[in-house]
Specification:
Structural class: alpha+beta
Distance between the termini: 53 Å
Strand order of the largest sheet: 1-4
Low-confidence stretches: none
Radius of gyration: 20 Å
Shape: globular
Number of strands: 4
Length: 176
């Protein structure tokens, strides 16, 4: 709600609990009862859900850290290829209403697939900085294919299927 105050840690479990996001959303009590039918007490279900959410956010943090390692390289013989959408408006920046139950409002859009930003799929470290040529990414990708499709639409694309089949079945292999 205060545009001058940035969220410093989006993966902070306390922020999620305070904002009522994910399993911390009080409107999800019925869902928690369905997911944990053997746990009779609503307080116990909520505590278990919040503990799970904390672990999930910690795993997300570890996953992000692993992706950001510039010294990580694929094993010999493994080539990484990236397919991403880049023609659908995708939420790039949101504002959090801290006094209104953690409601989110999109304040900036960017190119992506409607779910994942192009810059995020590419792990482009230039995001948020002045534009300069050449992507700055810790990913060691041999080839990138950008398609004008939505997140789920990517796999339905004939261009996607044709390229994947070529990569898997016809493209000459590099020697490790």
């Amino acid at each position: 709600s205060d545009g001058s105050q940035a969220v410093t840690d989006l993966l902070d479990p306390a922020l999620w609990e305070q904002s009522g996001w994910g399993l911390a959303d009080p409107r999800r009590a019925g869902d928690l009862a369905t997911l944990m039918p053997d746990v009779r007490d609503a307080g116990e279900r909520r505590a278990a859900a919040l503990a799970f959410q904390r672990r999930a956010l910690e795993r997300a943090r570890a996953f992000h850290a692993a992706l950001d390692r510039r010294d990580a390289t694929p094993p010999d013989g493994l080539e990484l290829r990236l397919v991403a959408g880049d023609a659908t408006d995708t939420a790039q920046q949101v504002a959090v209403n801290r006094t209104g139950g953690g409601a989110l409002r999109v304040v900036a859009w960017g190119p992506g697939d409607g779910t994942v930003l192009r810059s995020s799929a590419l792990l482009d470290e230039r995001a948020g900085a002045a534009w300069r040529p050449s992507i700055d990414s810790p990913l060691s990708v041999r080839q990138t294919l950008l398609l004008p499709d939505t997140h789920l639409g990517l796999t339905h694309s004939t261009v996607f299927r044709d390229n994947v089949l070529y990569w898997l079945l016809e493209e000459p292999r590099r020697k490790p």
